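Why SWIM-type domain-containing protein? Reviewers of the renewal asked for a concrete example.
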Amino acid sequence: MEQFAAWLINTYPLTNDNNRNILKEGLKLFRQGNVIHAYHEGSTMTGKVQDNGQKHVLLDEEIGDLSRCSCGATTLCPHQLATFLSVWSQSKTIASLIDGWKEQSTENILPTLASATIKKEATSYEDNSLSSWLEFVDYQHQQYKSSIPSKRTYLTGLTHAFFPKLRTQAPKKAEIRPLFLLHASLYCMEQVINSYDSSQPYQYIADILHRFVDMVEEESKGLFHSAIAFQLDSLLKESRQLIRETLLQQEEPFIREMFYVYQFTWNDVFQRRNWMASELKELEGDTSLQAELAKTHLLFLQKKDEEALKLVKKNSSQYAPYLFHWLQSLVFNKAKDRLENWLAVSLPIVTSYIHSEPTYDRKRQLTKHLLKLLTEYAMETRQDKLYKEAMRKLMPYSYGEYEWYLFETKNYRQWVELQLWMGFELSGLEAYKLKEIKKTDAYALFPLYHVAINKALEQRNKTAYKEATSLLKTLHSLYKKEKLEDIWLQYLLQLKEGTKRLRSFQEELKKGRFSYD
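Here is what the prediction returned.
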């Protein structure tokens, strides 16, 4: 493959506009997953590319000019390039190829590309070389894998043995140490993802990945002040490209975790270098979910909310899990005007997403998280319209917050309606709340007592009849308090008439002195 890469770089230099367009289109086809059945056999590489029908590609490694595509192109076409990128990515990074291509250094390209495959004994590294860091980390990983007694301990050891050891081996210079550890965390994430198969619980793998995501966030914050240092220029440029390529190549079910890496590094590191415009240009024309998310985040950081929200609307449900981070950032920064615009678009998407989640625990977890954000928004703006709307739409998962809100704001009648809607028994409600409502708005409790009395009567036994009579006494006191004795009398007469066949209950009524004729 290195020979074909050298031919490609030498024959199609990126100083030519047409060659740059071929690279752009080829990358787009590759990133969108349009290449299928690409493989390397002997001195040829073959593959199929979906692009207005299926295109068949045959690449000749030894004589690049003999390569062919069924699209009819007589020279290199995007389908051929996409096929080569797919084969190349199976053992090397796309970044290593494009870096070499951009440098146009044909004399040095073969050894450089070859080193992407050959595993050297990298027992040390150069402080200012990203490729040297990655070779060192990779070599340490090989040593770690060969030392563990069983594959079962691999993932546990990655977090508790391998990475802690890398911490001790990281550069001592304060300005580059966080960047080294950031890349070490990203490397570990890739190894965790590579080890994933259908026999493993998804959540177990996701939990391990999130530990490394947290490390990336921590190291990104550690780079905030040194990110503008001139000596980090080349390291950060390489890092930016590597992190972009890693996100764009990542497939489900772990796109979310890789996007978090992209978010955190742009939040605290790359944003400091005013690279957002050029990064957007790199992503131009790519409509994969990964690229759309990256573009949205860059627009978000630039406060170009109108453009960002167009992408949110376009991708709607696919974006739902990612919206929380943007909303949280706006709440944290007290950007209430921006937050209002984002909530108007995001809230329907997020509430639908929560209802679609498979387990109650997950629905409850996300509801709690969203309502916490909206509480902070309501406190900041002194407007609770969106908070109330979200609580209503997220029932029953928002019951705890909604019940507390209605009671604290003295919306007692709505509070009672909520208990009835949930089907809760009067006996199961908190006594101090019932006592407070009796004092302030006794009328609000009428429906609760009427329902409780009817349920007791339905049980058709003496104990239940005694309970119904006791509830009637309390209800009578509430009618008296509200000066509604005439209505109480009508109710009691109707009750007696409707239960005249229930002799035991009629006896309880007489004992309780409810014998109005």
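The chain has a mean pLDDT of 88. This is the kind of structural detail the renewal will allow us to pursue systematically.
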